[in-house]
Amino acid sequence: MSILSKRKKQSSEKYDVKKFYSLIDACSIIKDINSSSKFDESVDLSIRLGVDPTKPNQMIRGVVSLPHGTGKDVKVLVICDADKNSEAKDAGADFFGLDEYLEKIKNGWVDFDVLITSPSFMSKIGPLGRVLGPRSLMPNPKSGTVTDDIAKAVKAVKGGKIDFKVDKFGIIHASFGKASFEAKKLSENANELIQTIVKLKPNSLKGTYVKSVSISSTMSSAVKIDLNKII
User: Fold this and answer.
1) Could you tell me the residue range of the domain that residue 92 belongs to?
2) 84: Cβ–Cβ under 8 A, 6 or more apart, which residues?
3) Distance, CA of 6 to CA of 227 (rounded, Å)
4) CA pair distance 174, 161, nearest whole angstrom
5) What is the CATH number of the domain that holds 139?
6) pLDDT tens across 172-227, in order?
7) Structural domains of the chain, count
């Protein structure tokens, strides 16, 4: 029999785990649960979809720019020629260069969150897939990380753009803010993410697309969201 930790027992007393809440109420509950936390916890969304991820036409993947950012300091690496270094630096990239960073990644260095590059360098980055792939760091045109407009891509990522992808169980997990955010800002971020996912419903899908939505923080239990109030 599992034993509830003191933290989980206290959090479960702040809301009804069987009840479904509006986004704004759920975000307020998460903030209340985290009021005594020793660090600024991330707030995450889990959305269960009625898709079959093994079918290419039901693989849900996309990007979204959160209106209030993620609250996370995202480390950006730009693989580029020397003539693009100043552009990358001015846009806010943390690391930028070419051969030096290609060699570092080859040797296992992955101290960054997003890798941005231009199409002409993908042939050099491709062989590093063994290092980048398992960590979801491989740049992709669909996520906007393979582009000739380096500055725009860097600013978008630093400003709160995130990418998401359904896992093999048909669930999308994504962080959309910090517990220190106002409940209204958390709610608006979550709604932007949810509505973006809703718009990606495959035409071939029969049956229910969004089965359930819940939000939680790093250390809290999940709070269920009332689908009738968001879809």
Assistant:
1) 76-158
2) 78, 96, 118, 150
3) 30
4) 12
5) 3.40.50.790
6) 999 999 999 999 999 999 999 999 999 999 998 989 999 999 999 988 889 999 99
7) 2
